[in-house]
Amino acid sequence: MNAGNLQKKLTFKQKVVSKVEKFNRKHKRLSFLGIAYALSMIFCYNVLFYFYRNAKRFTSLACIVLFFATSSSFAYPTMSVGISFATQVNTPVNDSLSSEAVSDTVISDTVVTESDARLAVIEDVDTSLIEEAKDSENPDVAEAEHLDPQKQASLDDILNATGDDSYEEEDSTVDTESGTTEFNSDDWKLILVNKQHPIPDDYEFHLGTISGNLRCDERIITPLLDMMKAARKDGVSLIICSPYRDMDRQTMLFNNKVKRYMEGGMSYMDAFNLASQAVTVPGASEHQIGLAIDIISDGYSSLDEGFGNTAAGKWLAANSYKYGFILRYPKGKEDITSIEFEPWHFRYVGVDAATFISENDICLEEFWSIYVK
Ligand SMILES: [Zn+2]
């Protein structure tokens, strides 16, 4: 402290002391008030004087705190708490969850909040990329080769390719009256595959050829053909496309999407999150286990909601369960499946489960959380 400051401090103290002395002389009974006043004034003065003396130091400290509080690099982790990968979006399907725990409102709120937050975080990058991802929320649209004639097959294509005797037309009578409500989690037909439940590393199955290069789990070819034949009897022509996709192709599609978003200025995490909305995360697609089939008709080849209003879409929605297939991503269950309504995507679960799921108007996630033991 320099001499000037010391002088100021002493002068202030002297002034206070002389004031209090005068006060105490006049009001002897209230002298304790004077002493308290003197002590508090000197204390406050010392504190203020301390800050005054270190003004530069405190100003720089305040600037640093202000900088960190407002800079995006500091704010980002705070904003993205709980976002992480999209796998956090829906976790109602958990073996330990009871049916009551699957509250539509709660799930819905979570989805909206988190997806909005995710988009908010990345709003400063190329918005056309985000729009594109939102437009193609149905992974099938981005992944399927549904417009490539080489990747499609009608019933006639299949029968011609395999020879009529392989899949003889027969009146398939399907038992839908079994009424089973016991479903075992070890049943291969029931395997649950989604973002929260990736395909197990040790999952094994045999691919069978439907026609040309179209393949799927060999165990579902017969029910699939039975379904196509039944549809034809009712005057509905079904065309299957994109049944089995291998991991390499799924990974390639996904990585390409991530790369594109990163080229648009996103960080890897943001690009990964956004890509997972448009393309199924590798290892989380039912197409990879050969149990899912995309079905269109010769009059309507777009993979969009409109397919649900076609004769084929309506026939499938009403009859597919009889052959063991379910409409995997139904309308109204988007907040649980976290996939938009896909009237063309069918999944084989076996006749018992498909009948049960269809009668109870539930999706596979709900079925698992309540009925699969
Ligand atoms: Zn599909």
Explain how this protein is built.
It is built from 15 helices and 7 strands. The chain starts with a helix and ends with a helix. It is an alpha+beta fold. It is elongated. Helix 1 (3-26) packs antiparallel against helix 2 (31-53), helix 6 (127-135) packs parallel to helix 11 and helix 10 crosses helix 11 (268-278). The chain has 2 domains: 1-54; 83-371, Muramoyl-pentapeptide Carboxypeptidase, domain 2 (2-Layer Sandwich), CATH 3.30.1380.10. The strands form 2 sheets. It has a 5-stranded antiparallel beta sheet with strand order 1-4-5-7-6. Strand 2 and strand 3 (214-217) form a beta hairpin. The structure holds zinc ion.
Summarize the helices and strands and which ones pair or pack.
Layout: H1 3-26, H2 31-53, H3 55-70, H4 72-79, H5 104-121, H6 127-135, H7 139-143, E1 152-154, H8 155-162, E2 207-211, E3 214-217, H9 221-233, E4 238-241, H10 247-263, H11 268-278, E5 292-297, H12 311-319, E6 325-327, H13 334-337, E7 345-348, H14 351-360, H15 364-371
Antiparallel strand pairs: 1-4, 2-3, 4-5, 5-7, 6-7
Bound molecules: zinc ion (ZN).
Zinc ion is lined by residues 140, 287, 292, 294, 345.
